[in-house]
Amino acid sequence: MDRQESLSPEELSARLVANYHELAELAGSLAHEIKNPLSVIRMNMDLLAEDLSDAQSQRDRRALAKVDLVQKQVTRLENLLNDFLRFARLRDLELRAGSLNEQIERVLDLFEPQARELNVEISRYLEPDLPTILIEPQTLQAAFVNLVKNALEAMPDGGQLLVRTRLTRVGLALDLIDSGCGMDDKTALHMFDAFFSTKNGGSGLGLPTARKIIEAHGGRIDVQSAVGHGTKFTVEFPTPKRLA
């Protein structure tokens, strides 16, 4: 009999978790190893671009255009690696009591200048005096950044982003409702799959990372969307007394 077949469900689950952590650790180490030579490539491309900045001949201008292309691809790879490291290395968080309103307000304040440039109105309906939830602030804000960024990108010609917090029967909820382009069924079905993206140059890890962070906080995320009618993300969190 195969050794794995003789394992109890608990032992098999523990082994799978251990294998996952080992793979994530290996992938993270590999990503770091890739970043080192990538940094050398970037530094040398920057120096070469500086040498060619006053290019006069057609040959030098062609060389400068090629350097610019390499620089853009290096930036894309660096962003992909950073997104991957955030996705792969998310571990058990050190949670403490905090305010949901405070976390989302900090993120919205960060995006207000970009929203104004895009002619997007951000409407805040944050219910006051909400109970605290258990959070790791910086990590949770990273999840909200991905969600708000996704909403703004869906409204390149302007629109409205309605942000609402509220009490629910089981805890607290955050609604992010945009008036953007919406998603078709295929996109909605795969939007939380790692590396799935409909955007040129997108890593496809923003929304999967956001969901992973939210679930690490004991929460869940739900999406409703229709092409031409916008998208609604709802994030729900249990209150501390319900986390046990």
Care to describe what's here?
- This protein has about 240 residues and is α+β, with helices and mostly antiparallel strands.
- The protein has 2 domains: about 90 residues; about 150 residues, 2-Layer Sandwich (Heat Shock Protein 90), CATH 3.30.565.
- The strands form 2 sheets. The protein has a 5-stranded mixed β-sheet with strand order 2-4-5-7-6, covered by helices on one side. A two-stranded antiparallel ribbon has the order 1-3.
- It is globular, with a radius of gyration of 22 Å.
- What's the CATH architecture of the largest domain? 2-Layer Sandwich
What structural category arises from helix and sheet content? Answer: alpha+beta
Largest sheet, spatial ordering of strands: 2-4-5-7-6
Q: Count the strands?
A: 7
User: Strand-and-helix sequence, N→C?
Assistant: HHEHEEHEEHHEE
CATH homology superfamily of the largest domain: Histidine kinase-like ATPase, C-terminal domain
Descriptive labels:
Heat Shock Protein 90, globular, 244 residues, 6 helices, single chain, alpha+beta
List the helices and strands and how they pair.
Elements: H1 9-51, H2 58-88, E1 96-98, H3 100-117, E2 120-126, E3 133-135, H4 137-153, E4 159-167, E5 171-178, H5 185-190, H6 206-216, E6 220-226, E7 230-238
Q: How would you concisely characterize the structure shown here?
A:
The chain has 244 residues and is α+β, with helices and mostly antiparallel strands.
